[in-house]
Amino acid sequence: MPIICIILITNIHLFAWTTASIRVLIQGKWSGNISSSPKYAGYEEDARYEEDEEFEWFITAPSSGKFIELTFSAFKTECLYDYVTVYDDILEGSRVQLASISGHHSTTPIKIISNTGKLYIHFVSDAGTVYNGFRGSFNVTICPSECTGAHGRCNVTTNKCACNAGWHGEACNTPTVDCGIFGIFDSATNSCKCKVGYVGVQCDITSPGIYPFQLPRHQWYTLTTNISPYYESWHHLKELLPRQGHTADVIGDSLFVFGGFDLNHVLAHFSKLDILTGQWSEVALGCPASPTGRYKHSSVVYQDSILYCGGMVQAGGALSDECWLFNTTSSCWTQYPSLVEAVAGHTLTLAPPNRVLLFGGNPFVCVDRSIDGGLVKDAQNCVLSTETLALSIIYIG
After folding, report:
1. Per-residue model confidence as pLDDT tens digits over 113-124
2. Are strands 22-27 and 54-60 parallel, antiparallel or unpaired?
3. Which member of 20, 265, 327, 388 has the lowest number of beta carbons within 10 Å of its beta carbon?
């Protein structure tokens, strides 16, 4: 049984550690530093963290209504195996994951903001390669990022920024978009409202009313960053959530986005982007049946329908062997025969006229040992083998 030592340093700092982990409690401070070696006073370039380490920081602002801005100025860990996970709130069961970081980040500082005035940081390393680790600092502010200096004014009563002309965003850190002569800036959505016949972030793309647009070749254009709020039947009014592991398929002038993982929840959201207008909406269903949320699934378009197969239906947990077909004309889901084996991370490919091929993926459940779901980093439980080279086929239509 490990010996637990608790040392009270000041009335606001409490350190406790065991042979396997270090826990740091920071209360009532307006600023401070963290590193991958809390045992030591500073961060040395030639220093390395150790194998099988686990660090935890619990940071609480001096009073309620404040923001905590965490900045990593140096970060180098074993990619996909040694992670720093950051949560908004310190209580287990109430935490919302803000970020999960791994690998080498040497150019741009990583910034994360807590809106609750409480921050929980968790670092874990495996029994393998070790690197220099990370160095970070935190600052408590009354408004987000103190309204980015001269870009706005902080209302100490509401803890919100009033942005100066030319800036917008929660912290007044985003320049107002120049909508040109074909659009008007909408402060409610922080985006341009384009005149009929024009689309794009700056309303500078001519829309002839059909897709594709008339654009020069071999150059990327940002069609939309306007994530307008819309009503989702399983939630209240909220914005389209950032996500990973989703699918996106185009039929006609619509982009259909299904599922994904937002670092905290497996999503069942089914959204549609009108490519001509840049507007998002919830896909209205014409029938009651529908699949549960999933991510790392795959999809393929067949005529006016989209076939979805496999994926993970729990964060870092159960895989699915289900296949579902969504018909965009009737807006109805139909469950198809199950896969030979539950799988995630595979591909689906249409072989005309009506054959769908499934290839690759991971048939093993990957258990995340350091955070509540999502990002795989336990190599012992996530091993690919020749079984992943199996090729399956189904006739559709």
Report:
1. 998 999 999 999
2. parallel
3. 20
Whether the full predicted model's pTM is greater than 0.85, yes or no, is no
Q: How confident is the model at residue 237 (pLDDT cuts 50, 70, 90)?
A: very low
Q: Given a cut of 50, is residue 2 above it in pLDDT?
A: no
Angstrom distance (rounded) from CA 168 to CA 161? 9
Task: Count, in order, helices (H) and strands (E) of the chain.
Answer: 0, 31
Residue linked to tokens 């039947």? 233
Q: What's the Rg (C-alpha) of the chain?
A: 24
Helix (H, G, I), strand (E, B) or coil at 133: strand
Phi-psi region of 21 (alpha: psi -120 to 50; beta: other; left: phi over 0): beta
pLDDT tens for each residue of 15-54: 333 334 788 999 999 999 998 875 444 445 567 888 888 9
Give the max Cα distance, the chain: 72
| Residues 110 and 75 sit within 8 Å (Cβ to Cβ) | yes
* 297's tokens: 């699934």
Contact status, residue 228 vs residue 189, Cβ threshold 8 Å:
yes
The pair of three-digit structure tokens given for residue 22, joined into one six-digit string: 């270090």
What's the rounded Cα separation, in Å, for the pair 81 and 301? 35
